[in-house]
Amino acid sequence: MAEPILRVTNIIAGYGPISVIKGIDFNAYEGEIVGLVGPNGAGKTTFLEALVGNIEIREGQIHFLDKRIEGMSVMKRRKMGMVLMPQEDYIFPFMPVKRNLQVAAVLSRDEEKEELLDFVYGLFPVLKERERQIANTLSGGERKMLSVGMCIMANARVVLIDEPSIGLAPKIVTALFENMKTIKEETGKTLILAEQNVKILKIADRIFGLEAGKIRFCEKTEDLDEAVVKELYMGE
Amino acid sequence: MILDGLINGLIMGGILSLPVLGVAVVYGITGVPNFAIGLIGVFGGFTTWYFLSVGLPLAILIGIGICFPIGYLLQGVLLTPLSRKKEADSTLFFLITISFGFIVEGAIRSVFPKPTISIAFPRLGAIHIGDVSADGFKFVALFVAVVALIAIRLLEQHTKAGRSLQATSQNLKLATLIGINTNQVFSLAHGAGCSLAAVGAIFWGALYTLDMGTGWHLGFMGFIIAVIGGIGNIWGGLISALLMGMVMSFAGYFLGGVWQSVILYGIVILVLIISPRGILGSERSI
Ligand SMILES: Nc1ncnc2c1ncn2[C@@H]1O[C@H](COP(=O)(O)OP(=O)(O)OP(=O)(O)O)[C@@H](O)[C@H]1O
Ligand SMILES: [Mg+2]
User: Fold this and answer.
1) Of A15, A23, B189, B199, whose CB has the highest number of CB atoms within 10 Å?
2) Which of residues 171-210 of B touch A (CB under 8 A)?
3) Is the ipTM of this complex over 0.90?
């Protein structure tokens, strides 16, 4: 296999004097879905925020597209092709659906915006139907679709989404995850999904298990013992 | 008398709505209350007065123009870096912006030869409404406020910069993550807000007189009225300015000038107890 598009070596990060991420090695290849699983408080959110530069790391290195990025600002990393959709507050609440999508395309080139929008609307027809609706009046599922649509509009090569399935009905989770797979297949993007929902095992190519700030395992999904993963990391 | 009160209220509300818009833009977007904004506006007013010899329109432009970089730099050099510190809370910003206000006050005193000025504007004809007549010019402030507000709304809806502004005020974290240069948005908003305050001060100087007290007064009133209208909600700001103008006008008529502020601030406290996010609701908590 080629070099990973994103390579993390032994990073330590946290808040104030406390280290939450206690030495993590991680990598992701172009065009794969990576699941990052782990119980509440394991450090999934902290890890993702460290990757995009929202919090600084204390030690270690992050290589993205063969460049060291750990000293770069959020904006620089974003321009290089990385975007994070946060766990909470992942829409602009008082704007219509379509404007949310337009704003997410701030750094995309003008000539690609229309194509991106068509792709989003093709994937989530409900967003087209409701393009004039104010975002905070959408249902939970529609809001999530909007946030995934915004990731597409952002047109980054590596898309990090923090718990896309949280708070959604099982059926909607299945559908949303199918869409993730479609995105991966049609755009060749790398998707890194922090998750606690077992259905991640259906779409991820590889899974990293995170516990108390450390990686406990990293396996191809087909090699995983599902029962163990479920018990340890999915709270089942 | 009722009509008289209404008209005076409109005039008062119109003029107050300009600094209110300034505050609404700055606080609504950056989340930092700038209590020096009135003084900065007054600095713009004094600058206009100083340059009157080059012609009124140009002098106005200079006065408004000089306030933009003041706000822009204040935000970019001082407030944005400060807000990243974890000790930064409203008290800190209160103290810092008040201090900055005193610095601006000192600057005005040392730069300009007079501590109190008024700016001569050409009078328009009198406007008659019923049996009350008032100089047409007095309504220009209200007109300008409405135009400014519509312009802000249009810019927000139809330009990329405007959408970035909206996005930043609605969800700062997401705006940053999605790739908006939120620091620049903050600086621009602060520059624009200070320019609006200057417009307000210039009108104040044309209708009444302009001094340091006016600066503090406009700043605090602007802030309070913006909060009453719902911070970040600029229509709410305008409506609230007009309502407060009416309250002051009628309180002045029926109870006399001394009671104006008592009634006004009594209502402010009442509204904030009943509805802490203002009458029209806010997209940001106070
Ligand atoms: N801003 C913060 N300040 C201090 N500690 C924090 C902060 N954010 C998170 N933590 C702590 O860091 C640890 C990891 O939190 P994090 O949010 O990264 O976990 P997570 O795996 O995303 O959990 P969840 O599944 O609940 O979202 C927790 O113990 C949490 O209390
Ligand atoms: Mg989390």
Assistant:
1) B199
2) 171, 173-181
3) yes
